[in-house]
Amino acid sequence: MTHIAIAYAARMSRRYFHRLFPASFYGRAILILIIPIIVIQIVLSVVFIQRHYERVTAQMTTNILRDISFLTHRIDTSPAPETAIDALSDFLTILQIEVRLPPQAAPMPERDQISRLDLAGQEIVRVLGADLPSYRRADLVQARGTVQLWVESRHGILEIHLPRGLVTTSNPHQLLVIVFLASGVMTLIAFQFLRLQIRPIRRLGAAAEAYGRGERVAVHPSGAREIRVAAHAFIDMRNRIERQRAQQKIMLSGVSHDMRTPLTRMRLILSMMPDGEDRAALETEIADLEKRLDGFLDYTRGQVLEDLRLTEPCALLSDLAERYRAAGHQITLRPCPVAPRPVFMHPGSLARALDNLISNALRHADKVALGMSLQQGWLEYHVEDNGPGIAPDDRARACEPFVRLDEARNSDTGGMGLGLAIAAEAARAHGGTLELSESPELGGLRAALRVPARYSL
C-alpha cells in the first residue's frame, strides 16, 4: 500500500508540475532562464544584506561608540560640561559631532524613530542599545543623513548629532541596484536571443502546417545546427511527397485510359450481341465495374490536390444544387451568408467532396437540404437528409475508406464505401474536419464539412 501511495503522489505531482509549466518552447526557455537569475539575485541579496547591514554597519557603529563613550565620560567627570566640550572642540570638529547640553537639547522621543525600510538604521539602533549603557533614544528620520542620539549623563540627557556616514556606508543599495540593472539588461538580451533562436522553429512549424493544408511555403534553413538539419529533412520529405504525387497523377491518367479502353470494347461487343439474359447480366457487371473504377479514381484524385484558388463559396454549393435539381432530385438550398468574400481553397477537391456527400444522401433519402455558414474564421458546408442516419458509435468508422455499414446503409443501393472517406480526405487537405451528427430538422444524417476561411495566402 505504501508503494501505491508513493506512486500515486508522484503521478499527481507530475501532473500538477506540467500544469504549471508553460506549454510553448519559448515559455519554457524563458522559465529556464529566469529561475536561475531570480535564485542568484535572492542569494546575492541575502548574502549582501547579511554582510553589509549586520557586519559592516555593526563594525562602524561599534567604532563610533568608543568616541561617544569617551565623550560622555569626559562630560561626566568634568564639573562643568561646557568646559569638557570646549576642551574637545578640535576632536568634535574633526568627527563632525555636535553635542547639545540639557538646556538646549531637543525633547527626547518616546521611542526610537526608524523607517521600516531602513535596515541599516535598525542595525545601528540594535548595536547602540546593546553596547552603549547610557543610550536612551535615537532619531534617524528627522534629519536626513544625520543620526540624532540621546544619551544619559551626570548632568542630564545629552543630545548628540553625528553624520550617518560614521556608522554606515553611503548609498549601500548601489551594489544591489547595479546588480539588478545588469541582470535586467542581460535578461532582455537573452530574451531577444531566444526569440531569434526560436523563430526558425516557428517558421518550420508554420510551413509544415501549411503543407498539411495543401499550401507550399518557402523554408530557408537557419538557426542552430539541429534546427537546420530538421528543416533540410522537412524539405527532403516534402520533395519526396511531391514526386510521389506527380507519379500518382501519371498513374491515374494511365489507369483511366487503360481501364476504360477495354470496357469500351466490351460494350461494343455486347451491343452486337442479341438481347438476352446473358447480355443483360454482362452489361450490369460492366456498369458495376465502371462505377467501382470511378470510385477508386475519385478517392485517389482527392489525395492529389490542385493549386489554391480564390473561389466563391456560395457559388460552389449553388452549382451543385442546380445540377442535381436538373437531374430531378429534390434538393433544398438554404440561404447563404450575406455577401461572403471569396476564399482560397481547392475548388475541385471540395466540389468532389460535396458531390459525394450529396449523392450519398440521395442514395438513402428522398429529401436533402444544403447550407453554408461562416463563423469565427471557419467555413462550414452542411448536407442533411431524412434517411436512416448512422449510429453515433459507427460515425467515425463510416469515414474510413471501403467501409460499408449494412445496418445503416443498405448494400443493395450500391456504393463502394468511399463517399464519406473522399469528403473526410478533402476536409483534412484543407486543414478542416468532417463531422457527422443527427439532423435536427430532417431527422437523418447531417454531414458538416468545416474548412478554414483563408482570404489571403
Summarize the structure in words:
The strands form three sheets. A five-stranded mixed beta sheet has the order 6-8-9-11-10. The protein is built from twelve helices and eleven strands. The protein has helices at 2-20, 25-77, 81-87, 89-95, 119-131, 174-212, 225-271, 277-301, 313-326, 347-364, 395-398, 419-429, and strands at 98-100, 135-139, 146-153, 156-163, 309-311, 331-333, 343-345, 368-375, 378-385, 433-438, 445-452. The protein is of the alpha+beta class. Residues 407-414 have low confidence and may be disordered. The protein is 56% helix and 14% strand. Helix 2 crosses helix 3. Strand 10 and strand 11 (445-452) form a beta hairpin. The longest helix has 53 residues, at 25-77. The radius of gyration is 44 Å and the shape is rod-shaped.
Amino- and carboxy-terminal Cα gap = 59 Å
Mean pLDDT across all amino acids: 79
* Largest beta-sheet details: 5 strands, mixed
Side by side, the strands of the main sheet go 6-8-9-11-10
Number of strands: 11
Content-based structural category: alpha+beta
Please state the CA-atom Rg, rounded to the nearest Å: 44 Å
Order of helices and strands: HHHHEHEEEHHHEHEEHEEHHEE
Quaternary state reads: single chain
Helix content bin: 55-70%
